[in-house]
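User: I'm new to structure prediction. If I give you an amino acid sequence, what do you actually give back? Let's try with this one:
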Amino acid sequence: MEDLNNQIATLVRSYKDDFYADKGVLSYVKRYTGCDDFLVSDNLIKGVWEFFEDNLLNLESSGYRKNPSAISVLHTNSGAGKILEESPKNVLITAFNNDMVCKRITDYVCQDRGLAYGGYIRDISQYFAVCNTNSSRKYDIVITQPLDDMTFYKGVDSVGDLSECEPLEYYTTRSVHFASKNGYIVVIYPPNKYEELGEIVLKLDVEIQENIQVKGLEYVSYEALILKKN
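Assistant: Good question. You get back a string of structure tokens that encode the predicted 3D arrangement of the chain. For your 230 residues, that looks like this:
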């Protein structure tokens, strides 16, 4: 598998920025296992978008807008774009990534969305490198998947002492900043972090909406906690 990953990474890096991936290339690069979201279940992703289709009037998998205002989505670490690829067609996507290979794979799976998609090498901690964060854009849905090795923010975020916290608390807390009033935050997390995440949420101005688990894989597979910002 390591050899396959190296081959895919070398290929992806060789493409120009405006490369368009055909079905064959897409199928091949999606076999890459080096991105954050590789182990996130397809059923979990389906459950997340079904929740929003039920709770946001202008969000439908068909792309039909009952409301002329499209839903905006920020993924703080999009991995290979597994979650974003399955999002309804009428969302406006902003995807951040710290890995160029994963960023480009996300670009490829979202390439047919045109101007409704923007992918960037960026970390949300960079918005807190200075004290004035009032100009940060707000989103209807913010998705984050904090992993234990995601420590880029340490030494970058200079607002308060949050940079001293572990990744789960850091990215969950900072994600709330980017959500609009009454917007949603989706935290993708391993089940052994449930109690820790619960303690973090108690400190935030949010309400728990739903905890999505994969049936038959409870306590084994990644879960998704959906929060609503007050």
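You can read the tokens as a compact description of the fold. Here is one thing that stands out. Residues 85 and 109 are 6 Å apart (CA to CA).
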